[in-house]
Amino acid sequence: MDDILEQPSSEAPPPKFDDNPDEQSSEDEDEGLDWTKLKTGISRPVIPKRGEKEHEPAAGGESGLQQHILQRSRNAMFDALRATRTISSKTVSYGIWHPSLVRVSVHVARGTHFSSMGHSASRPVKGKERPTKRTELLPEEAIYLIERGSLFCWKEIDIDLSGMEDVSGAPMSVQQAYAEMIGTEDVTLEKYQVYSYLRRLGYVVTRTVPPTSEYPAAAPFLKMGQLGQPRCSIFERIRSAFSSWILKLFTSTFNWWKPLGISRWLYHDKNYEHIFRSLRFMPAGHQLPLRQTKEDSSPYKPFYNLYKPPTPFKKTLPPPPDFQIVVINTRTTSMPSLQELTDLFDISPELPIPLPKRSPPPRPAPTPLSWWRAVLPFLRRDLGPPARRPNPFAALRAGKKTVIVAAVDSGNISFFRFMQGAFMDWPMA
Amino acid sequence: MTDSNSRISISVTNKRAFIWEVDDIAVIRSKYRICGILTGTLPHVSQQNVFLGVPLSLMPEEVVLLVENESAVLVDDPNAYPEPSLEQITEWDSARLESIQKQLNITESLKHASSLNTRSMSEEAIRKRRERKQRKTIPAEETEPSLKMSMSGHPVHSIVIPASSSSTKWYSPGTCTYASIDSAKAAGIWDYPSNLHERAKCGVFRSLWEQGYFMGGGIKFGGDYLVYPGDPMRYHSHFTATVIDSPLSALQPMEIVAHGRLGTATKKAHLICCWDDKKKEVTLMSIEWGGFG
C-alpha cells in the first residue's frame, strides 16, 4: 500500500472485484473454498460493514430512518451468523474425542494446520503388543479446528459401530465441543478465547508448560549476545579494539572533568563508576533479589508460547518462542503484584536494545554513480551515514524485558505489555 | 411473564453463559436489549477477528437479568449429552447418506444442465464459463464426480459441522434446565452474584437497563460498563459506568480526576454508580471536565 502512495503513477490502481473490502484480509484461507459448489441456498456469508455510528436516537424515540438502518444492519449480522459451517469431504479432517484422555486423536489429518498443531503420542492399542503412535490434539486445538470447520469430531462411545461405514462415534457439534472440552487440561474459556484470537491472526500458539512429556517443549531462550546483535567479523573487532586503544594512548589530553582518568592504571578502584557506586546508599537494579512475599498460586504464569507467522516453526522441535503470554480473567484477578511481575521478568529473555529510529531518508535522485554501489555492496556501507548510538530514552521505554498479559473480560480481550526499564544501564550523569 | 417454552436457553459451561441459536441472539438483542459479545470463529471468514460468530458470550450480569425477568432459562450443557443409542446413530448416519445423495443429484443435474447448454452455447456463455474457471470456484473434479472418490468411498461432497446442538436428536437439555438463579446455584452450575460487589454490579446493570439503555462491557474504557442510548451497532455510548459497592465506600480524589480525564478524552461522561445494598437502590453521578480556562 505504501509503495502505491510513494510512487505516484498515472495509471489507476487495478479494480478490485471484492465487493466487501473488510473481507480482503480473510480471503487468503489456506484451504480451498470449494463449498460454493452447492447451489442449494447456502451462500458465502456477507459480513456487515463497520459503518459510521450516530450520536443518539432522535428525541422521542428512533426515527423511521434510524429504525430502518438499524434493522438492516442487524439483519446483515444475523445472516452472517447463520452461515453454515461446511467443508468438502476432500479437505476435512476427522478426529475422535476421548474424554478420559482429554485429547482428540486424529485419524484423518488434512490441511496445513497440522504442521503447527497436534503432537504425537503413543497409546496402547487393543490386539497389539507395542503402543502405536498417533497424532493427538489438545482441547483448545480441537475446538479451534472444529469451530473453523476444518475438523469433524466424533465422541468416543461404547456402542459397537462395526456395521456402519465411516462412523467412529457420536458426531459432535461446536456447542458440544465447547461444553465438553473447555475446563479440561487447564483450558479455561479465557485461555481458549485468547488461543483462537491469536490463531485467527495467524500466530502459531503452543503451550508454555508441556501438559505431558510427549508434548514437545520449546527450546530455551537464547542468551543475550547470541541473539539480535549483528555479528562483526574478526577483522573488524581487532581493528576497533586497536583503534580505541591506540587512540586513547596517543590522544590522552588532560580532561578537567575526569581528573581521575590518569590514575586508572595505578589505582584501579578509583574510576568513576566505582566512586559513584560507593556514593550510592540506595540499592538499585533488577539483579538484587526482591524481598520474598508469600504467593502460593499466582495466576500470572505464562500459558502460551507465541510464534510470529514468519518464524520457521518445527512442530517436533519448537524454537524459542517469540513471545510468552499470560492469560487472566479480569473479573477474578487483580493487577499483578511486584513479586508476580518480577517472577515473570526473571523467566523472560533479555531483549536487544532498540535501534534508533531513523527518519526515512529522502529518496535520492537517481545518479549515474548508483550502479557501482549496487555492484560493490561494501562501498555502500562506507558511504552511508555513521551508525547512530541508541537513544537512551527509547531503550528505557522499551525496557530490557517484557511480559505480555491478555486480560479477558467475558469475551473482551485486551493485551497489555509490562516492561522492565533498565535505568541502571543508562546513567544520565 | 412468559411460559418456559418460549424462554431462551442459555447454555452454561464452567459457569460461563453462551447462546448458540441465531434466532435467540436476534430476540435478546431486539426484544430484551441484551447484546453480549460474539466470540466464535465465523465459518469461511475464519482468519480475522473483526467479525466473529456464534457462540454469543453473555456477561454474568446479563444472564442474571434475563433469568430474573423470566426471559431465559439456564441449561447445564455438559450434562445434556446422554450417550446416543445405536438407533439414533443409525438414523443420523442414514440422514447423512441421504444428504450426500441429494448433493450428488444436484451436482449431477447441474452438470446435465450445463451439458445441454453447451450445444447452444453463445459466445457470451463461453466467455462466462472461462471466467468461472479462472475464479476456480468450481473445482475440476466436480464435473466428473464418479472419477474422483474421496476416502470415505463417496464422491466429493460437502460436510456440515453444526454450530448448535439443537438438531442433534440425542441432545436433551430438558432434564438439566434451571429456571431461576437460585436453582442453578443449588445445582452448582452458576454462582453469580455471590458477594456484595457482584450484587452491586447486577443492581447497577439492571437499573440502567430498565431506563432503556443498552449496556456493553467497559473494560477498554476504564469502567465496568459502557452505556449506550440505543443499539451499540448504530449509536455511540455516552457514558462509562463504574460501580461503587456501597454508599460508604471511599472514593479517592485521584479516581475522580482519572475518570474525568478518561471520559473527556473518549468523548464520554463518566458515570459513578453507587449501589445501596440495603435499599436496593442506585445513585448515579456523572463527572465531566468543567473546562474553565
Protein model, in words:
The complex is a heterodimer of chains A (429) and B (293). In chain A, 25% of the residues lie in helices and 16% in strands. With 429 residues, chain A is an alpha+beta fold. In chain A, helix 3 crosses helix 5. Chain A starts with a helix and ends in a 9-residue tail after the last strand. Chain A has a six-stranded mixed β-sheet with strand order 4-5-3-2-6-7. Chain A has a five-stranded mixed β-sheet with strand order 8-9-10-11-12, sandwiched between helices. With 293 residues, chain B is an alpha+beta fold. Chain B has a domain of 101 residues: Trna Endonuclease, Chain: A, domain 1, CATH 3.40.1350.10. Chain B is 34% helix and 20% strand. Chain B is built from seven helices and twelve strands. In chain B, the strands form two sheets. In chain B, strands 3-4-2-1-5-7 form a six-stranded mixed β-sheet. In chain B, strands 8-9-10-11-12 form a five-stranded mixed β-sheet. The radius of gyration of chain B is 27 Å and the shape is flat. About 5% of the residues of chain B have low confidence. Classes of the chains: A alpha+beta (429), B alpha+beta (293). Chains A and B meet through helix 2, strand 1, helix 3, strand 6 and strand 7 of A and helix 1, strand 3, strand 4, helix 3 and strand 6 of B. Strand 1 of chain A pairs antiparallel with strand 6 of chain B.
In terms of topology, how is this protein built?
The complex is a heterodimer of chains A (429) and B (293).
Chain A: H1 2-6, H2 64-82, E1 86-88, E2 93-98, E3 103-108, E4 119-123, E5 132-137, H3 139-147, E6 151-155, E7 170-171, H4 174-181, H5 189-200, E8 204-207, H6 234-250, H7 272-279, E9 302-307, E10 323-329, H8 338-347, H9 370-375, H10 377-383, H11 392-398, E11 401-409, E12 412-420
Parallel strand pairs in A: 2-6, 10-11
Antiparallel strand pairs in A: 2-3, 3-5, 4-5, 6-7, 8-9, 9-10, 11-12
Chain B: E1 8-13, E2 16-19, H1 22-30, E3 37-40, E4 53-58, H2 60-68, E5 72-76, H3 86-119, H4 123-135, E6 158-160, E7 177-178, H5 181-186, H6 196-210, E8 214-217, E9 225-228, E10 239-244, H7 253-265, E11 269-276, E12 281-287
Helix pairs in contact in B: 2-6
